[in-house]
UniProtKB/TrEMBL annotation:
GO molecular-function term, one example from the UniProt record: phosphoenolpyruvate-protein phosphotransferase activity
Top-level taxonomic group: Bacteria
Keyword Nucleotide-binding: no
GO-annotated biological processes: phosphoenolpyruvate-dependent sugar phosphotransferase system
Ranges for domain PEP-utilising enzyme C-terminal: 8-293
Gene Ontology CC entries for this record: cytoplasm
Cofactor or coenzyme needed: Mg(2+)
Record: residues binding phosphoenolpyruvate: R48, R84, N206, D207, R217
Name of the protein in question: Phosphoenolpyruvate-protein phosphotransferase
Leading EC class: transferase
Catalytic activity: L-histidyl-[protein] + phosphoenolpyruvate = N(pros)-phospho-L-histidyl-[protein] + pyruvate
Length: 325
């Protein structure tokens, strides 16, 4: 029951053979943090900063952003908070700032593409994030990266923001970890190149699945094709995780796929060090993590990667997990 699940709050998310995972929360409003802590979240793996920009005429200024990020970082301290830069466009349409004439918004000016088209707005956001990094452990993460030049452009604006703050005598953590979402097929395919540019990856399966399988994540007519266990998705995840491992950088998952207990042997076998999800999912995921050996996840993954259909993968996983979820 609920009470039994909450008893997992104080136990580590560790496999029986000693492989430790970090379970973090996805947050849309600073006020969600206390509840997430109560569920056992060890940090914020994804703060969707676009929610500060929704439903208003002008974007929040540096001070307002600073206040919001500070509230999250302070509430979560000493745990780390991952702030994702503005991700508007696609299914997160903000009338005041998005183009309204895009025929295909999911493939349009969204995520980091929008930020790089309005670099002043991005720099203001990065200044606010940097200022909060002086107060507690903060990471910055860029969404919808599809090529190396985009992350280099983002880092160059980050360095400009750092130089400005230094000149103004304002404190920040000059070594704050810089990461990217892996949520486009191109990013998965060049994960080895991208891994040399950043400190961490976080896989956004909501978009990665949509783009890999060419299935609109919000279109009910093709929802039956939206399959996290599609062999193409398993291969993509494998490419991403092995690139991260070879480069020695951390790899997280913050899409909905991270919250489904049935998928955990795969995620453990792939070597994910962090899973970030909506806070209420944390206790259940933790309970299942504590029942799957890392060695078992790796073996099962090898088997699943040989399979050709979603049905085969699902059947095999369900057999393995029957008694545990
Ligand atoms: C994702 O794409 O998986 C993700 C976590 O980001 P969002 O759902 O905000 O697009
Ligand atoms: Mg996304």
């Amino acid at each position: 029951g609920e009470r039994e699940l909450l008893s997992y709050r104080s136990l580590p998310a560790e496999t029986p053979d000693g492989h430790r995972l970090v379970l973090r929360c996805n947050v849309e409003l600073p006020s969600e943090v206390p509840h997430a802590l109560a569920q056992g979240a060890e940090g914020v793996g994804l703060f969707r900063s676009e929610f500060l920009y929704l439903g208003r005429q002008f974007p929040p200024d540096e001070e307002e952003q600073f206040d919001a990020y500070r509230e999250i970082a302070t509430a979560m301290a000493p745990h780390e908070v991952t702030i994702r830069t503005l991700d508007v466009g696609g299914d997160k349409f903000v009338p005041e700032i998005n183009l309204s004439d895009e025929v295909n918004p999911a493939l349009g000016l969204r995520g980091v593409r929008f930020s790089l088209a309005d670099r002043q707005l991005l720099k203001i956001q990065l200044r606010a994030i940097l200022r909060v990094s002086a107060l507690g452990p903060v990471r910055v993460m860029f969404p919808m990266i599809s090529g190396v030049s985009e992350i280099r452009a983002c880092k160059s604006i980050l360095h400009q923001a750092m130089a400005e703050l230094s000149r103004e005598g304002i404190d920040f953590d000059g070594r704050l970890p810089v990461g990217i979402m892996i949520e486009t097929p191109s990013a998965a395919m060049i994960a080895d190149k991208l891994a040399r540019e950043v400190d961490f990856f976080s896989v956004g399966t909501n978009d990665l699945i949509q783009y890999c399988l060419a299935v609109d994540r919000s279109n009910e007519h093709v929802a039956y094709l939206y399959e996290p266990l599609h062999p193409a998705i398993l291969r993509a995840l494998q490419m991403i995780c092995s690139a991260a491992r070879q480069a020695g950088i951390k790899v997280a998952m913050c899409g909905e796929m991270a919250a489904e207990p049935l998928y955990l042997p795969i995620l453990i076998g792939l070597g994910f060090g962090e899973l970030s999800m909506n806070a209420p999912c944390i206790p259940r995921v933790k309970r299942v993590v504590r029942q799957i050996r890392y060695s078992e996840g790796k073996e099962l993954l090898e088997k699943l990667l040989q399979m050709s259909t979603v049905a085969e993968v699902t059947h095999c996983l369900e057999e393995e997990m029957m008694t545990r979820i």
